[in-house]
């Protein structure tokens, strides 16, 4: 008999059906006349209750019915006598597929701290919270592809190994085939595998732009790498980014697209991950209850997401944002760690969060940043001081999207590369798009993990990626 997964079984299988089920034991309780096994196979947040008459199970097998063990059960679906579930599996036969020693298995059925679970990333999928998070991550990734596919975008895979530094921040991991124990400080990368110095990509954007200049609408969706030493709950050294790039789009078209896109993917997850979101919503509310009154979120997780879907995002310029922040600093309404004194400062996470969480209480799009604090490729505005950049800030996270209209004017782009010390020879292929049939175009990047944090309510970015890479940590 072919085995069935628990999700299908709970949704579709009729009372009286004979089934074969496989999964991992969450708990096993041996009461006098009956053995209760709670089984999960990862297909859903719900466990299947299995009941056995003790005499049907060998004594040797009984000893192995530990939390974490993998089993196969054949039995019949019956209406449950208990009140926690509608149906249960009345077991006839049971087999141990893989044992789990009760003394050694680290995931005993009790509450574990997130820190502890991070130290066993390879096992944490087996908890309710993490299985829900990774199913939501899957649902969200699918929604992203669906949105772009329905809107005529072409999925482009840009290189992971690249010779360029798209963001100009210089926080890159070098890739080399050289024996690091033997190379000297003045190692000549001409001898290296690619004949030059290469790194792991920090963004697929520049390659993506070359695609958009022929295919019209593209998006990339892949891993990106940053060697910044930021040990925060919003930064990873390896994270996934979604980057659409669209020919003939100016800044406002780009913002409209980003807003529509964010709403679409949230709505999709709300509709298609209901059980997991209900679980995460309850978890979020329990955590809020344990916080002091003034730090509590007044909305539930699901309410917050529904609100984002239906509200129009606030749109303001950097200069307007700066004025709000400076005034509130001046009036002592809010004390910032980084002072807001001079126009031109970069907005810090605390400033971004104040704007979106306290001032506007909704997602905020900040545009037209000072040119010196943004990347070389952004379109220079007429004022000669700002560029057509846009960042989207959301409550609880801060910046979730960074994007811009691109500088498509050849001479101005060359000038900007000089000012930012960007090597024009190395980026001659990028400049070619401006030399041959240039056109206005725009795009943005959404950090997938920050998006999952927003949807799942998880505080720490390390808890929404399977195996987080952060300074000093790369398990598995
Ligand atoms: O703002 P960023 O650096 O923009 C770019 O890389 C552009 N090339 C995107 C584009 O226009 N195509 O990064 C984009 C987003 C951020 O808003 C944030 O959500 C996420 O990527 N991000 C990170 N997520 C996790 N860990 C990090 N270290 C991140 N750095 C950026
Ligand atoms: Mg950014």
Describe the protein's architecture and organization:
This protein folds into 2 domains: 6-110, OB fold (Dihydrolipoamide Acetyltransferase, E2P), CATH 2.40.50.140; 125-463, BirA Bifunctional Protein, domain 2 (2-Layer Sandwich). The protein has helices at 6-12, 59-62, 114-118, 128-150, 205-215, 251-272, 274-289, 301-310, 318-330, 349-359, 410-419, 428-435, 448-456, and strands at 18-30, 35-40, 48-52, 70-79, 87-98, 154-155, 161-162, 174-175, 198-200, 217-225, 238-247, 314-317, 364-370, 386-394, 398-405, 441-447, 469-470, 473-474. The chain contains 13 helices and 18 strands. The protein is of the alpha+beta class and 476 residues long. The radius of gyration is 26 Å and the shape is globular. Helix 6 packs antiparallel against helix 8. It binds 4-amino-1,4-dioxobutan-2-aminium adenosine-5'-monophosphate and magnesium ion. The site of 4-amino-1,4-dioxobutan-2-aminium adenosine-5'-monophosphate (4AD) has 22 residues, from strand 11, strand 15, strand 16 and helix 13.
Describe this structure in a few short sentences.
The protein has helices at residues 6-12, 59-62, 114-118, 128-150, 205-215, 251-272, 274-289, 301-310, 318-330, 349-359, 410-419, 428-435, 448-456, and strands at residues 18-30, 35-40, 48-52, 70-79, 87-98, 154-155, 161-162, 174-175, 198-200, 217-225, 238-247, 314-317, 364-370, 386-394, 398-405, 441-447, 469-470, 473-474.
